[in-house]
Amino acid sequence: MARRYDSRTTIFSPEGRLYQVEYAMEAINHAGTVIGILASGAPPATTGEEAKTGSEDVAMSDASPVATTKPAEPAGVKKGKRRTGIVLAAEKKVTSKLLEKEEGTGEKIFLINGNLLSGVAGYTADANSLVNYSRNVAQGHLMSYDTDMPVEQMVKRLCDLKQGYTQFGGQRPFGVSFLIAGYDPHHQFQLYSTDPSGNYAAWKATCIGNGNSTATSLLRQDYKDSMDLDEAIVLALKVLSKTMDDTTLSSDRVEFAVISTDEETDQPHVRIYKPAEIDELLKAQGLTKVPESETAMKS
């Protein structure tokens, strides 16, 4: 029955389904996993008992005949600030060891603008086309308004294009989903996902690709609203290692990036990790393979 209605994107089935769009979304489930985690760094919420105890302590101190005051902190001493930002971690599909790779280029994580970062799952050629479109849109906005494009506005422009390709005959939907991480002064850090139908949603933590069900379950268990950037990095690597076939990872199979704010200028700062930095990060978490030379020396 489905074969009568899946030849064009403009034909609805009797059940109200667009099969070509569903097939495009199914292609995402065979792509490498991409994980996004928003680290707000908010302090943990105070429970009712803690608030009550705190108020009782204050009342007791006020009633006490001998008032004690907390000594002032020395001038120039700053408390440690919890880092905020967004982490993107992606699984690369290794096609061949003979493939020559250009320095500084990736296949899963792309820089769109100084305040925008994207992770993709699906057809690489479709992703490249949409990344180039997004970069042109971001630069056009910067040229017109002399300011970085707001994150949700970029997501809407991208999804408008993707939705248009599901509405006209003679075209096929884009077979790629995006995770878009960004920062703007009005809404701070934001994480969005898009799919081939043109839908988008905002998330605190999410995943696209072939391991999305396992990753989503792990994120539900371990994600905390009070998580800072360092904790989000650890969680992203942990979840990625459990969604991949091999529990030991390497820079050949992983791409990693972080968007945060500069401590001095408070402007967005994007860092896409180099292979050596990824290996160092994996080694610190005990997720990398031990070189054969080191194994031989230990034995």
Automatic annotation (TrEMBL):
* Matching SUPFAM superfamilies: N-terminal nucleophile aminohydrolases (Ntn hydrolases)
Q: Which InterPro entries match?
A: Ntn_hydrolases_N (IPR029055), Proteasome_alpha (IPR050115), Proteasome_alpha-type (IPR023332), Proteasome_asu_N (IPR000426), Proteasome_sua/b (IPR001353)
Pfam short name (any one): Proteasome_A_N
Q: What is its main location?
A: cytoplasm
Q: Where in the cell is it found?
A: Cytoplasm; Nucleus
Gene Ontology cellular component terms for the protein in this record: cytoplasm; nucleus; proteasome core complex, alpha-subunit complex
Q: Does the keyword Cytoplasm apply?
A: yes
Where is region (Disordered) located? 44-78
Say which family it is in.
Belongs to the peptidase T1A family.
Query: What is the recorded name of this protein?
Result: Proteasome subunit alpha type
